[in-house]
Design goal:
InterPro entries: DUF5787 (IPR043901)
Structural class: alpha+beta
Distance between the termini: 48 Å
CATH architecture of the largest domain: 3-Layer(aba) Sandwich
Protein name: DUF5787 family protein
Number of domains: 3
Shape: globular
Order of helices and strands: HEEHHEHHEEEHEHEEEEHEEH
Mean pLDDT: 85
CATH topology of the largest domain: Trna Endonuclease, Chain: A, domain 1
Number of helices: 9
Number of strands: 13
Strand content: 15-25%
Pfam families: DUF5787
Oligomer: single chain
Low-confidence stretches: 1-5
């Protein structure tokens, strides 16, 4: 077996899908803004790529709350904060857990500058600064499987059936590399018909991906079905499937939680788990951009690009002094570039 690295590992394919979606995704409503993030989901499920179709005016108002995500506790505060000064226990609905945690969330929200807080004697009062907007229109989930054959499609099909039944996303897609055949049989035969299929050419082919199968829209506002256990399909398996219902309010909160994390992270946050301070680390394709290892001559994965890599070579101290070649050295410059690109996508 050859020891040569994969010219495009799944990690790099995932970044390429994110880049394509950010540039070319056509939202359901043409006036929507598109935000793309990666590796997000809920406790039982994590999607490779998330595409948010956002209301432009709502997205602009969301920026008033800062670039950090608002977790469920903070959203409970900002969504119900009143226009006038009010005792926090009169202003906020009963959360179903001890009020001391709500009080801490009020303090955190005030420290973040997203609500106003004051004391009237021993009572803590708050009032809102801005109304939290309805900024997310649709959530689209993409599963990235570059080398999807019939066997892999069979395994993935079970998970996608659960995604369709739960309908937490408005659409579910699979992105895979093309095989060069006119029809992608492994993609079409084993996956649920509700799931869309994107067939991506190789990284050096210079062609846009093709839609091999259009997805069905899922009703994310309706109750969903969470499949807990299902028969294995054997000839003597007579066991029944176990499932439970997911109510629309749970789904709404989970979708908003995913959107908040996507707003904070974007897809360029991969650099946070890599070593851009290595002298061999480069960014290729400035439109992307994608990480490149000059020592190995390939796109590294986030696991490969670490301090334990045998080719890891820290930047010389001189690179990080006297502003050469950019303030803070090349590693910090890479992070600054990706942060600027991430910020522009929120605007």
């Amino acid at each position: 077996m050859s020891g040569a690295p994969d010219p495009e590992p799944e990690f790099t394919f995932e970044l390429r899908v994110c880049r394509w979606a950010e540039q070319h995704w056509e939202p359901r409503r043409p006036d929507s803004r598109v935000l793309v993030a990666r590796q997000l989901g809920v406790k039982r499920r994590r999607w490779d790529t998330i595409v948010l179709e956002c209301d432009p005016a709502g997205l602009e108002r969301r920026s008033l709350f800062g670039t950090e995500r608002l977790n469920s506790d903070l959203r409970h505060v900002v969504q119900h904060a009143p226009r006038e000064w009010t005792y926090y226990r009169d202003a906020l609905p009963d959360p179903g857990y001890p009020w001391r945690y709500v009080r801490e969330a009020v303090h955190d929200a005030a420290a973040r500058g997203v609500v106003e807080e004051r004391k009237d004697g021993r009572r803590i009062e708050l009032r809102r600064k801005w109304r939290y907007p309805e900024w997310v229109r649709r959530v689209v989930a993409i599963e990235n499987k570059p080398d999807l054959d019939a066997s892999a499609a069979r395994v993935l099909g079970d998970q996608l059936e659960r995604d369709v039944a739960l309908s937490l996303a408005d659409e579910v897609w699979v992105a895979a590399r093309t095989t060069g055949r006119s029809v992608e049989p492994a993609l079409l035969e084993r996956l649920p018909v509700e799931v869309g299929i994107l067939a991506f050419p190789g990284p050096d082919e210079g062609r846009a991906p093709e839609v091999a199968w259009h997805p069905n829209s899922l009703d994310s506002a309706a109750p969903g079905t969470r499949i807990l256990e299902r028969p294995d399909g054997g000839a003597h398996d007579q066991s029944a499937a176990r499932f439970e219902y997911a109510d629309p309010e749970w789904k709404r909160e989970k979708r908003l939680g995913i959107a908040e994390r996507a707003y904070e992270r974007g897809w360029r946050s991969y650099v946070d788990t890599m070593r851009p301070d290595c002298r061999h680390f480069e960014l290729r394709d400035p439109v992307g951009p994608l990480p490149w290892c000059a020592a190995k001559g390939c796109h590294p994965t986030d696991r490969e690009c670490s301090g334990s890599c045998p080719d890891f070579s820290p930047e010389p101290p001189a690179w990080r002094t006297r502003g050469w070649p950019i303030e803070g050295g090349p590693g910090k410059g890479v992070k600054a570039l990706l942060d600027r690109q991430r910020q522009r996508r929120r605007e």
